[in-house]
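User: My instructor asked us to take a sequence, write out its structure as tokens, and then describe one feature of it. I'm not sure where to start. Here is the sequence I was given:
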Amino acid sequence: MSKAIGLINTSCGGDRALNEQMIRDLAHRHGYELAGLLTITENTYMPTTQIVHTAVTNDAAAILAPLLEHFGVALRAIAGVRTVVAADGTLTRAR
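Assistant: Let's start with the prediction itself. The structure tokens for your sequence are:
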């Protein structure tokens, strides 16, 4: 079973418990073992680097989030190295 990490960006708002449950459900639905959950804020230093580093160190093939907006401006860079899955049905395979 491939691994994935979850991503929650607190700047996007939403209920934390609901966001976490959405990520767990996504992992189950797509057949991923959830290796961890990363929370970033508007004050996170170099969020793109932190997200990719967390995925690499956890040997995660994918990064899951409640909505694409949780990736912010990092989406394009992240989608180049890992599969991105959002609860709204968006799936972007790494190139």
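For the description part of your assignment, you could build on this observation: The chain has one domain: 3-92. Try explaining in your own words what that tells you about the chain.
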